[in-house]
Amino acid sequence: MDFLNVPFRTKGERSYGITSIADFGTPIGQLEQYLIDFHQYIDIAKIGIGSAYVTPNLQEKINLYKEYKVIPYCGGTLFEKCFIQDKLEEYCKRLKELGIEWIEISNGTVDISLKTRLSLIKKYKKSFHVIAEVGSKDQDKEMPLEEWEHEINLLLEAGCKYVITEGRDSGTAGIYNRSGNVNLELINKITANIDVTKIIFEAPTPKQQMFFINQFGANVNLGNVKLQDVLVLEAQRHGLRSETFFLGEPTWSLS
Question: Is pLDDT at 109 greater than 90 in this prediction?
């Protein structure tokens, strides 16, 4: 259908307006059914946590994503596990064998210094597209506002295609409080001087997704989206849900 005036949406191989899903073990048959219908709404698929290491049909899953033009990559937890065990060389070799072209460099669980992460980005950007993540999965760890902005800027300057703001799959850490509410002061600080099209906000719940859509528009980059929520999210981006109904609409008056 194309008769309504709805917000503009980027299409095809998007550089912004990205929807990044989190795959925590979706069976191949179920995944294929979702991709047949909804692949045009999905840009990136993160094979969540370290699950790629124990996924028995990993190559088949990667091939399926690529068949439908969805970029697959492994969650940052697997990178951190390899880092702490000094197995990054083996990890990168395996990614190449699998045909994975993106790598996430994070420190959500392991305290990897910013200097080390910047060095790794500069090293691996020669062979991969690099995504970095800022923020901790620990609800009790809070980074100062200025540190978020400083880190994101440095990570982008080092060569990251995007920087992810930590939110966990629960939406209760990083840019959120324990109740799942957005830290608005933090978001305002991050986006005041940084190109928002280079940030992927982890937003696993519809409530959080709608906040970012209303804050930054239909083409905000969103991550950790559940596969079953992809169509609903696209409807939200088009102003087809009550909470985003007036997105891009003129101000209406009843007088």
Answer: no
